[in-house]
Design goal:
single chain, 241 residues, alpha+beta, Alpha-Beta Plaits, DHBP synthase, 2 domains, two-stranded antiparallel sheet, 4 helices, 9 strands, 23% strand, elongated
């Protein structure tokens, strides 16, 4: 259900942003910027970038457009920003909030650059080694600022159902983070933890017992090897399964 915008004393813009703008926290950034400026409208991922329709005072809209580029997420790479003035009355507003992140739209024939995988950020590293944190030693820890992107995507637009994370529904705690605009994992598509995410273990054909990686116990230092061969230490890449 949506409402039409009240055109009185209001202007509206359609904005199309292309470049590396998916998988880099761009939708959460747009949502929070629009909310801070008390603008109404929506943002979504499409097969050709990020699209926005926004309604508000004309001078505030001008500031909004400028800040989309000047304050964009550090992992993004904007190639072009197309801005068109549209009738405010034509903008469909969300029922339950002023601004919303809408479901993505796939369009045949479009092209969207994908972000590379990003090494674990400082915030995630702090959580990773904090015994009191629920993601203590979770190998696939990530947020909107880091973690797998290119290695998990199967199709565009970039959303969890179109990645290798699709078989792993978020637990209530991860879902709450995903839905919270103030959280670092707000709309982080690979968001996961020990409870709901993928697990990893080490195993050798000559030693059938699997060695789990992660959790509260000490991580294995090396895989068991046949006598006379050097042990192989476990290595973590940037991506996830």
């Amino acid at each position: 259900m949506t409402n039409k915008a009240n055109p009185a004393t209001r202007a509206a813009r359609y904005i199309h942003i292309t470049g590396v703008v998916q998988g880099v926290g761009f939708r959460p950034f747009v949502y929070n910027l629009a909310s801070d400026l008390e603008l109404a409208g929506w943002v979504l991922n499409s097969s050709a970038g990020v699209e926005i329709e926004v309604v508000g005072p004309d001078d505030v809209l001008t500031s909004f457009v400028e800040r989309l580029s000047s304050e964009a997420p550090p992992l993004s790479r904007i190639e072009q920003v197309e801005v068109r003035t549209i009738p405010a009355a034509d903008v469909e507003l969300p029922e339950t909030s002023r601004f919303a992140i809408r479901h993505s739209e796939a369009r045949e024939g479009d092209f969207q650059p994908i972000s590379p995988d990003i090494c674990t950020c400082e915030d995630c590293l702090r959580e990773l080694f904090d015994p009191a944190d629920r993601r203590y030693r979770y190998p696939f820890i990530n947020c909107t600022n880091c973690g797998p992107r290119f290695t998990i995507i199967r199709d565009i637009p970039y959303d969890r159902p179109k990645t290798t994370m699709a078989p792993f529904p978020m637990c209530p705690d991860c879902q709450a983070e995903y839905d919270d605009p103030t959280d670092r994992c707000f709309h982080a598509q690979p968001n996961a933890c020990h409870v709901c995410g993928p697990h990893v273990w080490l195993q050798n054909p000559d030693h059938p017992a699997a060695l789990p990686v992660g959790g509260g116990g000490a991580p294995p230092q090396a895989t068991p090897q046949p006598r006379g061969k050097a042990p192989v230490p476990p290595l973590k890449g940037r991506g996830a399964p």
